[in-house]
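To fix ideas at the outset, we first show an illustrative case, written as a sequence plus integers encoding its fold:
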Amino acid sequence: MKATGIVRRIDDLGRIVVPKEIRRTLRIREGDPLEIFTDREGEIILKKYSPIGELSQFAVQYAESLAQTTGHLVCIADRDHIIAASGSGKKDFDGKPISKQLETLIEERGNVVAQKDSSDFIKVTLDDAGDFGQQAICTIICEGDAIGAVILADKEEKMGETERKLAAAAAGFLGRQMEQ
């Protein structure tokens, strides 16, 4: 654990304020759920809760199956990181934080099919090198909340209606799995 040097007092309702600098660094927004853990030494640990993270093993299997079937790179993201990646180039995406552009697309519940030279094309991760020139992205909706996205990407093969429908089907399926 890393000490920040910041000390906060608990108010009369049992609340504590997480400093703005820490919230910005950890990408914690107003209304975001946090998990609370305790350990034997009396420490309280707050961890940003990712509902889709509960399905991470399932998401990995789903991404692998979709990548094998389509031949595309398949990524499944929550609102902060890529939680599953499969296909050629997965090492460049797996576990990486998502870009601000993808975060905005998810917040706006957007879907996109684009080529690299298009104005709709977005970076997937913060350090996306731009090796993939085609993409189909669909937001995962669970109980009315946008919780992540399914991304199909390819270096050369043009994405179209089929890939858009595949991404939408995957996003719909994962959203329904979360509701159970």
Remarks:
- The longest strand covers residues 145-154.
- Helices lie at 20-25, 56-70, 100-107, 161-179.
